[in-house]
Specification:
The chain has helices at 10-17, 35-53, 60-70, 89-101, 112-126, 131-138, 140-147, 149-160, 176-181, 188-198, 210-213, 220-230, 238-243, 254-266, 269-279, 290-305, 327-336, 348-355, 364-373, 377-386, 390-411, 466-481, 501-506, and strands spanning 164-165, 173-174, 235-237, 311-316, 319-324, 422-423, 425-426, 429-430, 432-436, 440-447, 453-458, 462-463, 489-494, 496-497, 522-529, 537-541. The protein has 544 residues and is an alpha+beta fold. The radius of gyration is 27 Å and the shape is globular.
Length: 544
Amino acid sequence: MPLRIQPGDWDKFVERYRRDTSQWYLIPKAKTYDEESIRLLIRGLALLHKWFCEPEALSTQDKEFLRNYLKDSQPQLFPDELLAVRWGNAAQVLFAAKLFEEGVVSREQQNAKLKKQFDDVINGVTEGGIYCDMERRFGRRLLIEWFSANARNIINIYQRLGLAWIEKDHFISMTLAGKRLIEPGTDYKPLFEHQLRKLQFYNPSFEGARGRYAHIRVFPFHFCLQIVLAVEPHEITLEEFALFVTKARAMEDASRCVAWISEFRKLNDQERQELLRRLKKRQRRRARPLLVESLETARKNINLLTLSGPWTRCKIGDSDGIVLTDEDKAKNILAEDKNLQFVDFDSKESWFCYFGDVSKKYDVEAAIKYYTRMGKPKEARKLAQQAPDKNRGQKVLKEGLKEKDIEDFVRDRLGLIESGLRLYKMGRRVGQQFETPDGGIIDLLTVTEDGSFVVIEFKRDKTSDEAVGQVLRYMGWVKKHLSPAKTVRGYIVASDFDKFIQYSLMGMQHPQIPNRHGKDLIYLYRHGFDATRMGTVILNAVDG
């Protein structure tokens, strides 16, 4: 890539740049990211939460409207009195209509005919139409390809910012970060800074683009901080961002990036313009030269990165750029995040479970825990050896491997817990380390022969009654999203339990469930587990 060439070798730079298609692509190009657009995005997020994440909280009139609109358009998985909206064609059209109706997306279209058609669709939705009837009236092409594309563009932005977790034909969930953002009185800037500091690229939210971007391993916010602090003056122009910054593949490229920018600034105006002219020349088998595409993407990236932080976006010469405004804050951020660790997340679910949780911050220790629970001991051991505190790293590794061994052993012998249990499966997802956007990570999510859900939580050592609250949270998430019509139960498997846990179990009272000391909802098992001898496992039920 260009950064690997000797700084100042412009002929080779041009040759490599025009071949190298990889670059940062942090956010969709569908919007300009400024304060006004962010306020509109937050308003749209509130609409998403109201109509799709918490439909049971709608007014009676809105519930009736939603039931009528969805009639015959999605499988009826839950009882009639419960509302659950899948992210299918009907939901996308409804969300697009609400976005237009509330002014989050402009109705103005370049094509007057299309604008009229869009207005007819919006009126059809707001007047209480049934989606299936509307599909016959307007046609799938208008509704799905054109109209609801506005909803998908907004959803893509929410996912890139870790605010919502959405899969086609599945239920819509708001992450903890998304819920925090729509709370009344929330200042979006600190929350956005938190999200931007955690943002890594590549990450699994870029479905379909793995081949182009997966080799890039950077934290864009921190990389740019390093660059803007190192160059004089403390600024990065749009051209410098597109030529050098956005081409970085690893955090270690920062010093070489600074060298390239320094060489670029030594060129006179005529030399710089000639370099840009060569890079903008037409390329075979490409609609637009790579630099033209990169400049457009770079502008959006700059807009995003400067929404919060110790810098601002402003004019530098004839184009936008980044200008550092608080040098001390920039240095403090880099110091605070010095142990930030890039993680190769297994799936989109893993990424959102981390990125959407405002309480999580990935350092080396957290990365060791992630690799351990995901069954990647080789990666975990490598990080433990490289940890700033090697003793602490080894301790975290050992504890994680022990808990993982217990979990794997029981996973393969669920009959030891309860006869007839099987691991839950949902498409490509399985019930081991089942990640949720706002409920946590369930060690084992299982199903009985009659389709009832059972949550199993493992603790390697003695545990307190805090584990009861944790399991109840998991059970509540499963109840809402997967099993509102049936009782969800749970198991806690630990080496021992403190004396207060029985009171927590007895406190779970329900008029329709006898609940003998909590045993009809949560069960306790003691394990006697020797990680060095996989055959020696003892599971004893704990009586109340």
